[in-house]
From TrEMBL:
<keyword id="KW-0645">Protease</keyword>
<keyword id="KW-0732">Signal</keyword>
<feature type="signal peptide">
    <location>
        <begin position="1"/>
        <end position="21"/>
    </location>
</feature>
<keyword id="KW-0479">Metal-binding</keyword>
<dbReference type="GO" id="GO:0006508">
    <property type="term" value="P:proteolysis"/>
</dbReference>
<dbReference type="InterPro" id="IPR011650">
    <property type="entry name" value="Peptidase_M20_dimer"/>
</dbReference>
<protein>
    <submittedName>
        <fullName>Peptidase M20</fullName>
    </submittedName>
</protein>
<dbReference type="GO" id="GO:0008233">
    <property type="term" value="F:peptidase activity"/>
</dbReference>
<keyword id="KW-0378">Hydrolase</keyword>
<comment type="similarity">
    <text>Belongs to the peptidase M20A family.</text>
</comment>
<dbReference type="InterPro" id="IPR036264">
    <property type="entry name" value="Bact_exopeptidase_dim_dom"/>
</dbReference>
<dbReference type="GO" id="GO:0046872">
    <property type="term" value="F:metal ion binding"/>
</dbReference>
<feature type="domain" description="Peptidase M20 dimerisation">
    <location>
        <begin position="217"/>
        <end position="363"/>
    </location>
</feature>
<dbReference type="InterPro" id="IPR002933">
    <property type="entry name" value="Peptidase_M20"/>
</dbReference>
<dbReference type="InterPro" id="IPR047177">
    <property type="entry name" value="Pept_M20A"/>
</dbReference>
<dbReference type="Pfam" id="PF07687">
    <property type="entry name" value="M20_dimer"/>
</dbReference>
<dbReference type="Pfam" id="PF01546">
    <property type="entry name" value="Peptidase_M20"/>
</dbReference>
Length: 467
């Protein structure tokens, strides 16, 4: 990126931001650094596989930390396979206290430039919005957490509890580095995951509506559907065709819904978020489902809404497929991969058995090919976290912001800490509109109005949880 480009983006970060709540006092240096680190990291293609440059993101973060007062020995960058992870420690004054951990990741999902309106690895700012792969998930969020921690240290604050910030290198794939990090930090007191939770903006005016923190998450699962045939010449079709058989199985899966379910966190979400839902039909369905999780009409409305369907129960969808070996040959093999997000309380084995029953075709072999995922219990609603996060988000976005507990529909690094019995909370301060949520998709984006309140939030939260 050219010096002119960086300077222009930094200047934009310092400009007044269109925050619709009462604007908190600014942090000019931190705000400029957020945008600088976000754009520089987006330009680094940290995708699993050939030419994976995740370690370069770690080096970028390390240089920022060194410049802010961290010593070389306080920062660990560890290469793992084609990726890497980073752990940086800010020692507290009381070594008897367990550390507070800020968690994030540096890798992103693959993005094909030919599919995007803009090159996914060339950050672009237009009309106060930052575009690029990782803008939402989660290079902007990582830059925000890191810059806020740096701001806190530069202010002269001295934590009583040690603060550790870490970024994994393969959260979007096998999570190998996450497991290694969690094992190193298994004595942690509490984890703030910057990659989950967040606020919702009104679709019309962009007004902040409510903020969500995640205390649990659904289990990630990948299953392979495979049909094999002898094949043969395409001029002599046979009754059994691997592509047709697999297609039939996928059609059945597409028409199937797993039973609707509810737990304390999702019930709280539907109850407390319903008053802020602009669509009366959706709001009524949220209330009805909270009151009765067997309400068929409410379930149908929520399942038709991409922002709600993952909160209603287990979901399984085809995400990849491959079949055949030649244009003039009968297919010898047809495969498809099914991605499931499993409601807590169910194992992957249970879901795989249900998939077999739904398909009802013995010729379709179903295999669990999941890597780096397991079931975990919800984190407790710790009063210290709830109080500190509520105070921080209202200081950042306005005293009237509603705070809503919830369960994440996606998988995150938090599962590795929860597996060890360490409370972990998805608690990003970033607000977005449902219509602008493009994580893992095309033209990923984030509103820069999140910068100032985001820094305000982290400075408050980290102070309260470490003093």
């Amino acid at each position: 990126m050219s010096p002119f480009r960086i300077a222009a983006l930094s200047a934009l970060a310092l400009a007044p931001l269109p925050v619709l709540a009462a604007a908190p006092a600014g942090y000019p240096a931190a705000e400029a650094q957020v945008l600088d680190l976000a754009t520089k990291s987006i330009a680094i293609r940290s995708v699993r596989g050939e030419n994976n440059r995740t370690i370069d993101v770690a080096k970028l973060y390390k240089q920022a930390l060194l410049a802010a007062g961290w010593a070389e020995g306080d920062i660990e960058i560890t290469p793992v396979d084609d990726t890497a992870y980073i752990i940086a420690t800010w020692a507290g004054s009381d070594p008897k206290l367990k550390p507070l951990v800020i968690s994030g990741h540096m890798d992103v999902v693959e993005a094909k430039p030919s599919d995007w309106k803009r090159d996914p690895f060339t950050p672009v700012v237009e009309d106060g919005i930052l575009y690029g792969r990782g803008a939402t998930d989660m290079k902007f969020g990582g830059a925000l957490a890191l810059s806020s921690l740096i701001e806190l240290r530069k202010s002269g604050y001295k934590p009583r509890r040690t603060i550790v910030i870490e970024f994994s290198g393969d959260e979007e794939t096998v999570m190998k580095t996450t497991g290694l990090i969690a094992d190193k930090l298994k004595n942690a007191e509490l984890v703030i995951n910057a990659d989950a939770g967040g606020g919702k903006l009104d679709e019309e005016a962009g007004k902040p509506l409510y903020w969500v923190w995640d205390g649990a998450e659904k289990t990630y699962g990948d299953f392979k559907f495979e049909v094999t045939n002898p094949g043969g010449h395409s001029s002599a079709p046979r009754p059994e065709n691997a592509i047709v058989q697999l297609s039939s199985a996928l059609v059945k899966l597409g028409a199937y819904y797993f039973p609707a379910e509810q737990n304390a966190l999702t019930k709280a979400y539907f109850t407390q978020a319903a008053p802020f839902e602009a669509n009366p039909k959706t709001a009524a369905a949220m209330r009805a489902f909270a009151a009765n999780p067997a309400d068929a009409d409410a379930i149908a409305v929520l399942r038709a809404n991409p922002a709600m369907v993952g909160k209603v129960g287990t979901t399984c969808v085809p995400t990849m497929s491959d079949a055949g070996h030649a244009l003039n040959a009968l297919p010898q093999r047809a495969t498809a991969y099914i991605n499931c997000r499993i409601f807590p309380g169910h194992s992957r084995a249970e879901i795989m058995d249900q998939l077999a029953k739904v398909v009802g075709q013995p010729e379709v072999k179903i295999t669990d090919v999941t890597e780096g995922s397991f079931e975990t219990d919800a984190s407790p609603m710790r009063p210290d976290f709830v109080a500190a996060s509520t105070k921080a988000i209202r200081k950042a976005w306005g005293k009237d912001i509603a705070v809503v507990p919830s369960q994440s529909s996606g998988a995150s690094d938090s599962m590795y800490y929860r597996r060890l019995g360490i409370p972990a909370y998805g608690a990003s301060p970033v607000f977005t509109k449902d219509s602008e949520e493009f994580s893992h998709g095309l033209n990923e984006r984030v509103r820069l109005e999140n910068i100032r309140p985001g820094v305000t939030y982290y400075v408050s939260l980290l102070t309260d949880l470490s003093k």
